Every structure is written in C-alpha cells, then in structure tokens.
C-alpha cells in the first residue's frame, strides 16, 4: 500500500488573515541591564508606597459604600448603640436606587448596534463600513464578550464611585487534537488522522477591574494618560508566574534565585498557617519546598506604567515588579504594545471634581437620606412597640433606692408610691413619621431622580407610562452620567480595535462570521481595517423599555411608509428591511420567521455590466437614448452615470462628451418622472384611504345611523391610512 503523504495543515487560530506581510506580536520582555533593574525596582516601590497611602481614604469609603449596598444594619453604618428590643432594620433603599440606576444607565449607554466610526485624519480609503461591521462582531460573545464587562463597569461606577477598563491582547497556548483528512486516489476523504498540536490563541479583551483597590495612582490628574504613574496590581498564582517565566513574559535576573525566593515565601506561608512546631514534626524545611508547592502561592505583581529613560530615549514603559521579593520581572515600551502608545486603561469617577480621576459614589450621595429613612422607620417601629407593649411603675415591699431607669417595654419599674401600680398612656399619632418619609422621598428625588421609581401616580400607566418616565429620566437626570459612561466605553472600544489594526491574529478571517455561519468579510486583511478613525455610540433613549421601543418602531414604520425614498417601487431593499425590523420588534420574530412572512430580501434588478457596456458605447462615440425608460432602474443608472462623470469623464474624447452629457440629462429626466409618478400614486392612495374611512359604504356598517354620509368609521388605535377589507370597491376619488 503506498504511503499516504500527510497534508500540512494549520489549526483554526493559526490560519493567516490573507496579509501580504505577517505582523506577529511579541509577548516576550525586553532586556534590561542590572543597573536599570535596580532603578526600576526603586521607582516602582516608591510609587506603590505613595499610591497605597493616597488611596487609604478611598478604600475606607468603598467599604462603607459596600455596606450600604449589602444592607448592613443601621447601627453598624452609623455607629449607633441600640438595645436588643429596638428595631435595627435596613430597608434596602440604597440598593434599590443603585440597581435602578445600573439598569437604566446600562440600557441607555451600552448600545453596540449604534457603533459608528468617524475619520480623525485624511484616509486614502474609506473603511468605516468595514470597521463598523468588524467592531460590532467583536463586541459579541465569540470575541471580546464585552456586555458582562460593561455591566460590571457600570456597577462599580455607581456603587463604589470609580470604574476602570483594561484593554489588552490575551495570548495563551493550548494542546488540541486536529483531524487531518486522508484522501484516496479519487480525491475523496475516507478517514482522518488525529494529530495533537500546541496552538497559540489570541484575542482582544476589554476587562473591567473588579476591585478598585488594585488601582494605584496619584490623587490629582485630568485623565489616566497624563498621570506620572499608573499601577495595576496583578493577583497571580504561582503556576501562572512559572508559565510566564517559561514563555519569557517574565525574565527575572536569575530564575533559580527568584524561584528560591518564591519557595521561601511558600514556607513562611505554611509557617503562619501551621506553626513552626507543626512544620518540624512534619519534616517540612525551606529546602524541601518544590515547584509543585509554588503552584497555589498568591503572588502580587505590580504592573507599572510611566516614563523611563533607556538608551537615551525617555518614553512610556510598562514594567512588571514583584515588590515583596524585590524582583524585576519584565518590561517593554508602550509603543510595542499598542499603536497609540497609550496606557491601556480607561476610567474615571461617577461624580469627580475637575482635576481628579476618582470620584464619589451614588451610595455616598444618598447615604444621609437613606440613613434618615431607616432611622425614621426604626423610630416609628420602636414607638409602636412601646405603645402596644405597656410598661409601668409599682411599689416594692422594701428596698427603696434612687436610680436612673432606661425605658424598656414589658417592664415594671419600682417607685415610692405605696398606693397603686401606674401604667402611663403614651400613645401618640404616627403622622409625623409619614410626613418625614414623604420629605425624604422628595429629597431623594432632588438628588437622584430615583424616587420616581417608587412613587405610584394615578395619571400614568403602570407599563408604558413608567417606560416614558424612564426615557425622560435617561435624557435629563441620567444624561450627564450616561454621557460620561459612554465616553469611557467608546474609548475602550477604540483601543480594542487598534489591537487588530496592527497585530491581527492568524485565522481572524475564519472567526469573523455572522449569525448564519458565513464569513462577514470574504477576504479580510489589514487593508480592510486600516484608517485613522475614532468610535462613536448613540445612547439608547428608550432605556431598555420594550413597550416604548415597540411604540417608537411602529411610529417609524408609519412614517417610513409615507416617505418616497422608502417606497417599495423606488427602494425595495430599504422597504423590506423596514418591514422586517418592525416584525422583529413587534412580534419578537427571528430572521427565519421574518422570511416566512416577507419572503427573501429583494435583490437589485440593476446589472452593473449593462452600465459598463453603455460606457464602452460612449467611448466609441455612440449617441443613444436611455434604454431603461421611466423605471426604477433609471435611479440606479443616474447614480452610476454620475459616478462615471466624476471618475472617468476625462477619458472620453472631447467630441464624444456631448453624447454622454445628453444621455445623463435624459436619464435624470426619466428618474424625476418616475419619482413624480410614484409620489402621485402615493398621494392618490392616501386620499382614497381617508375617503373610505370617512364615508363607509352600506356593506361596511352594522346600523342605519352609521350609514349616514359623513359618519366616521375609523377604529380607535387604527394605523393611519389602514384600509379595512372590502372598502376599496366601488369608490371614486373626486
């Protein structure tokens, strides 16, 4: 049997992106001298110490904010001393307001369908359409999976006052089994060989920093890019550190010496946990610690960003330093990490003062109102308990003493009155508590607008009316914070997109597919995405309201049907999309279900080859009338001939240009006549529909008075221009 030659294949992530020259990102650290390493360790250690001191106040406030969010007892929040019988309830108003804010701001600010690009400088090719399609795909679960990160980003911004995105390229390796097809002499695959390969994986990541304690920076600064230093604390396990050393992401000066430090750290950790005597009994010594023991060691690596001078050049660098073990692990200039040379972080505070990045949280803003609300409720509860469970005074048989008594229900207190037991009546009106709660709700409304979510109004619907209220708040009360959050989101998306412009991973074209499993770009390359642009996103003003979104979609549908540019005769493609979007929104249909009702999307009848043939006839000097006449194709011919005049007109001989100009003029006349005919038909249909609605025939009425001239047959809530079945027969329009 002849030996079957094994085909040389590449795995899915290794397949090239059809680029002329491959640009491969290098994750390995640059080399540094011993003197540079010492300087870097000293710089990073000083900045870490300074950053930890600066953020002490922020950390204390963050812990208090989280207590409000987690509905800790008011006595713990405010340091109150309460008896065991006293009410100490937290009603969770702070959490309810925070969750309402998060839901509204997230639904308003995170609107990936509206992503668009604007040029920031002159580009020889306009790739904005490609950039938009690629970015909308990339924000999905299959690549960046940005939605949950944005959700956590908004949560941190509201609850703890600050939030930060980190944008980076994730590079890792996995062992995979590849199925290699084996073909017979006829070229048919008859079996597969399994070959195990180590695969390099790459993708861009937008990650929310879950704990803001891991961010160290100066107290003052307009934005992250202008800070003298910025530090992110990486909490790595020993296994990850050893892997980075193996892949040369980390390059300690002496690997064995650094491993020895890590082993000593493991021993001291065991010593703190088990005790020195226990370790001796178990026979565990520092020399007996192996690499396996390092695997679950928690190692804090400080990722430092700032300016550093190397080889006579002062520029921004990224350094990795293990401060506890005083070890420099790696570094490289930011220009080698991303094309812009920016620190790959985005973020700010919710309500920050000018010149400061961190800010106060929503919990801190509403804390006085929330505390007062809880106190009023607890005081009211205590007073009800006192009045419902009486207390009194009695005369003891002996042992009269003078003392100060603290009031407690269900207790009798001794007095010097020998005659009777006295139980006072302390019942009072509770109206003061109701009045205080209303005042507190009004204060909360002024501070945040959140009281609207808890107040029921008789003049509004519980569904659509509430959605309209949320829409109003999203445009006014929430508008400032929505714009700030959206600015950070779009900046993060822009940084993410730059990762693919300069260093596209292999096999990217295979991954960029649509919902139908087909490639979005038949031939994706670096040239398909290049261009200096910035990302923009439009707020979703319906704030996630399904009822309000349906109302807007129906309004858009009714308005669009009256537009000449969405007439199915002029723009069948656009009219089909409008109808499909309306069905999706109103009935929650999938693409396949929409095609069941509307059929396949109409294809353009226009053939570009016909336009090219006409151009060749102009080049030969022919003079002819437009063959398409007053039809829809005249609009497309007009667009095509106009483009030819802009791009190819200079190629025509001067004596032939008059023929082209005359043909273009006639095409323009045909297009205008066609549009006039469509508009006339549209007006006639509208007038006919109105006449039918106002003057129904005898067969469309169920009573004699409805048959009178001038009676109105319009149904409540009927769409404008809707024609009931059977009302179009026998009608004439004067």
Write structural notes for this entry:
The radius of gyration is 37 Å and the shape is extended. The strands form four sheets. It has a five-stranded antiparallel sheet. A three-stranded antiparallel sheet has the order 3-2-9. Strands 1-12 form a two-stranded antiparallel sheet. α4 (93-109) crosses α6, α11 (362-388) runs antiparallel to α12 (431-448) and α17 runs antiparallel to α18 (572-587). It is of the alpha+beta class and 734 residues long. The chain has 22 helices and twelve strands. The termini are far apart. 43% of the residues lie in helices and 14% in strands.
List the helices and strands and how they pair.
Elements: H1 34-54, H2 56-69, H3 74-78, H4 93-109, E1 116-119, H5 128-138, H6 146-159, E2 162-183, E3 189-208, E4 215-216, E5 229-237, H7 238-246, H8 255-274, H9 276-282, H10 291-294, E6 298-310, E7 313-322, E8 327-333, E9 345-349, H11 362-388, E10 392-394, E11 412-414, H12 431-448, H13 464-475, H14 479-502, H15 508-511, H16 526-529, E12 533-536, H17 546-561, H18 572-587, H19 591-598, H20 608-619, H21 633-647, H22 654-694
Parallel strand pairs: 10-11
Antiparallel strand pairs: 1-12, 2-3, 2-9, 4-5, 5-6, 6-7, 7-8
């Amino acid at each position: 049997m002849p030996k079957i030659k094994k085909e040389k294949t590449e795995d899915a992530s290794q397949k090239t992106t059809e680029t002329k020259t491959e640009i491969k990102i290098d994750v390995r650290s640059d080399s540094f001298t011993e003197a540079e390493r010492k300087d870097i360790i000293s710089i990073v250690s000083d900045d870490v110490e300074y950053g930890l001191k600066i953020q002490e106040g922020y950390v204390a406030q963050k812990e208090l904010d989280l207590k409000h969010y987690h509905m800790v007892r008011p006595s713990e929040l405010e340091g109150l001393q309460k008896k065991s019988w006293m009410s100490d309830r937290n009603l969770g108003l702070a959490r309810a307001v925070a969750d309402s804010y998060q839901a509204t701001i997230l639904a308003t600010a995170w609107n990936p369908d509206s992503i668009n690009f604007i040029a920031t400088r002159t580009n020889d090719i306009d790739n904005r359409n490609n950039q938009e399609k690629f970015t909308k795909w990339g924000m999905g679960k299959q690549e960046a999976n940005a939605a949950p990160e944005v959700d956590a980003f908004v949560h941190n911004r509201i609850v703890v006052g600050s939030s930060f995105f980190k944008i980076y390229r994730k590079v890792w390796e996995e062992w995979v089994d590849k199925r290699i097809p084996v073909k017979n002499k006829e070229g048919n695959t008859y079996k597969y060989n399994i070959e195990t390969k180590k695969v390099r994986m790459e993708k861009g990541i937008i990650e929310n920093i879950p704990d803001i304690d891991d961010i160290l920076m100066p107290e003052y600064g307009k934005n992250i890019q202008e800070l003298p230093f910025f530090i992110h604390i990486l909490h790595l396990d020993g296994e990850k550190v050893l892997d980075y050393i193996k892949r040369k992401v980390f390059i300690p000066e002496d690997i064995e010496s650094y491993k020895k430090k890590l082993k000593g750290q493991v021993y001291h950790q065991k010593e703190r946990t088990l005790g020195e005597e226990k370790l001796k009994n178990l026979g565990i010594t520092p020399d007996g610690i192996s690499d396996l023991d390092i695997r679950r060691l928690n190692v804090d690596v400080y990722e430092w960003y700032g300016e550093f001078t190397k080889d006579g050049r002062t520029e921004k660098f990224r350094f990795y330093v293990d401060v506890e073990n005083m070890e420099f692990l790696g570094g490289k200039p930011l220009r080698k990490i991303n094309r812009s040379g920016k620190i790959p972080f985005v973020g700010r505070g919710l309500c920050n003062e000018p010149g400061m990045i961190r800010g106060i949280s929503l919990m801190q803003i509403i804390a006085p109102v929330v505390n007062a609300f809880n106190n009023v409720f607890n005081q009211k509860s205590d007073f009800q308990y006192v009045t419902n469970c009486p207390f009194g005074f009695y005369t003891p048989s002996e042992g009269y003493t003078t003392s100060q008594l603290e009031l407690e229900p269900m207790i009798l207190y001794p007095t010097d009155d020998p005659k009777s037991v006295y139980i006072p009546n302390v019942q009072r009106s509770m109206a003061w508590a109701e009045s205080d709660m209303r005042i507190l709700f009004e204060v909360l409304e002024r501070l945040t607008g959140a009281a609207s979510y808890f107040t029921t109004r008789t003049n509004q619907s519980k569904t659509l009316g509430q959605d309209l209220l949320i829409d109003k708040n999203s445009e006014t009360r929430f508008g400032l914070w929505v714009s700030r959050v959206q600015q950070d989101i779009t900046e993060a998306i822009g940084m993410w997109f730059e990762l693919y412009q300069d260093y596209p991973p292999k096999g990217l074209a295979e991954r960029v597919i649509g919902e139908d499993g087909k490639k979005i770009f038949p031939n994706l390359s670096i040239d398909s995405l290049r261009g200096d642009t910035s990302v923009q996103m439009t707020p979703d003003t319906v704030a996630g309201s399904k009822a309000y979104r349906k109302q807007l979609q129906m309004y858009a549908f009714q308005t669009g049907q009256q537009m000449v540019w969405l007439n199915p005769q002029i723009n069948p493609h656009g009219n089909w999309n409008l109808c499909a979007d309306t069905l999706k929104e109103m009935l929650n249909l999938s693409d396949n279900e929409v095609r069941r009702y509307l059929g396949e999307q109409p294809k353009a009848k226009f053939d570009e080859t016909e336009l090219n043939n006409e151009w060749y006839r102009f080049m030969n000097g022919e003079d002819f009338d437009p063959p398409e006449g007053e039809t829809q194709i005249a609009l497309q011919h007009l667009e095509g001939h106009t483009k030819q005049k802009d791009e190819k007109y200079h190629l025509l001989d001067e004596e032939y240009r008059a023929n082209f100009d005359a043909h273009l003029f006639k095409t323009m006349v045909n297009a205008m006549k066609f549009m006039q005919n469509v508009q006339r038909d549209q007006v006639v249909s509208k007038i006919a529909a109105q006449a039918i609605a106002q003057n129904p025939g005898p067969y469309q009425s169920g009573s004699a008075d409805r048959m009178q001239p001038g009676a109105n047959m319009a149904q409540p809530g009927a769409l404008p221009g809707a024609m009931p079945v059977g009302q179009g027969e026998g009608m004439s329009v004067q």
